[in-house]
Structures are given as C-alpha cells and as structure tokens.
Amino acid sequence: MLYIVFLTARCNLVCRYCGGSIDESVMPPEPTYSIEELRRFVENDPHPIIAFYGGEPLLRIDLLEKIMDNIYAEHYVLQTNGLLLDRLKEEHLSRLSTILVSIDGIKEVTDFYKGRVYDRVMENVAMIRKRYSGELIARMVACEKTDIFRDVVHLLQHFDYAHWQLNAVWSPDGLWSDFGGWVRKYNAGITRLVDFWLESMKKGTVEGIVPFLGVLKALMFEPNTSPPCGAGTNAFAITTDGRVVACPICADFEWNVLGTLQDDVFGLPRVEILEPCKSCELKSVCGGRCLFFNRERLWGDEGFNLVCSTARHLIHEIMKVRQEIEELVDTGVIDASDLFYPKYNNTTEIIP
Fold this sequence. Notes:
4Fe4S-binding_SPASM_dom, iron-sulfur cluster binding, iron, Sulphatase_maturase_rSAM
C-alpha cells in the first residue's frame, strides 16, 4: 500500500491556487508522533510505498532521512516544489524511486502561479538529473493560463514524465473567468497532444505523458475499480498529528478520517466513490477520477459535468488510438512494458 506522510504542514511558497502552509486548525505544523509509531503502523505491510508530502517536505529533510534510514519501503516517493532539491544528500536521493516536481509549464505560466521560481527549480532539476536514476516527473496544475499541448511538450524536454491535475478541487469562485470556454480549448489541446504522442510512438519513442499511459494501462492491462490514486482503498495519508486519512487534500473532513497510527492498517475502513461515477460505463478506466471531487461537489452539477467531460474526452481519444498502439507493439516498434505505467503507485492520480 501507499503511505503518504506529511513531513510538515509548512510550505515555503504561496501559490495562487493553493495558499501555502496548511492551517493549524487542520493539523499541527510538525509531526507529533514518533518514528517508532510510524514504523509499527507500516511494518506489517509486505510491500509498502512511502511518499513524502507536505506542505513542502524538503523543509524537513532531517525527518525524511530518519524515515528512510529506519523504515523499510519498496519505493520512496517525493512530492516537492523543487526549491530545496539541491540539499538532498546523495545517499537519500539515490534511494528515491520517484520525484515529482511542482511546475506548471513554461516559465511565464509557472512564475505567474507560483512566484518567480521557474529558473531556480529548473536549475535544481538539471543538477539532479546528472546523478539521479529514478523517475523524474513534472507535476502541473492546469489553470486558466495553461495551454496543455504547449506546456506538456515543453516539460517533456526536461523531465521523464509529465502529469497534471485540473485546478478544479475547491470552490471555483475567483479561480476561473470562463471555465467552460477553457475546457473547450483544453479538450482540443488533448486531441492534439494524443496525436503528438501517437506520432512519437510510430518513431519508436513512448513519451511519458502520465494520464495517457495510465488510461492505456487501464484499457490494456489492469482496469481501475476505484480512483487510480488509491485514496481510501490502497493509499492512505498520515497527518502530522497521526491521523490516517483517505485523501491528503482534505484531512479535516469527517468522512475522510479513517483512524490513527495506533490502528491496524489492514483493519481500516475503506471509502468508496458515490454515484454517478459508481455506475458509469467508463468506471473501469476512470475509476471515479477523484474521491474528494466525487463526494463534495463544490462545483455544483454544471461544474461537475464539465470536469467529467474532460475525463471522458481524454479517455475516448486514447480509445481511438489504442488499436494503432497495439499494432506498434505487435510489430516491435515499441515495447509493451513501456506502456504499463505506473508500475507502482507513485502518487500520480492518472485522471486529470
């Protein structure tokens, strides 16, 4: 299972779509439990994956090092804004299977939403690429200024993979001037990006576009029975005060709290998606997209349906090219193993 560990609730950025550090009413700034308590919670799992999360987890490199040195995991994953990547020691950097770096596309878009961080982050990414053999993922938030084709293609020049989530979690008030209009442009960009992806495959290269690979995996190899992130089924987040929650983004919601570090992880309740996702004909691919969005409906029916339309469009575009991709595998142009992604739960949610 995947254990998403909040190393701190503090952040060293205040992005326009986020707001920075987590409020103390949600969880304390720093962990109040011991390493030993965390170890006991994880140790009975034969295949644990530990993801370091925040806040900005690299504000607590000391705690990251202690966990890696004292608690076994098959994979260690880091989600970071990238500003402190240069401070990771070689011995711990080399043991991370996946690093996801928060960056929103080209310099102008990233700097608009995150402050003037693009140059510093890209310098750090270039630096660690020289000595890091794990997977390096650009993790975008798709916002109003996002051109999905332009920004993904740009990031693929610097990262092994590109992944994104729509800025469609909390209330839309003040976030969008015309979300419906943006969705139309976004869907057109997805179609163009799928064409680019297929043409690259015809030349023998499988570009690391995470949502496309994840959808193809569900179509060809392993259907999704729940949201691909695993929230509430095989992925859990551990807050700084030792609560165990299904989804890390809403630790203060009652339905989301499953227990504490004192509980047996295998005895925790599971959280299922609700209708209409539960009966949707695309559930085996989409899995319900997002547990929080499915349950809270902060965007109302119209907003919910617009977001759903983006997932449907992306899935249908991948369905259109599936046969051609399978033919490329059969003729040896590409390797089927490159299409089975992710090979473990690396915190990528798959469906934007």
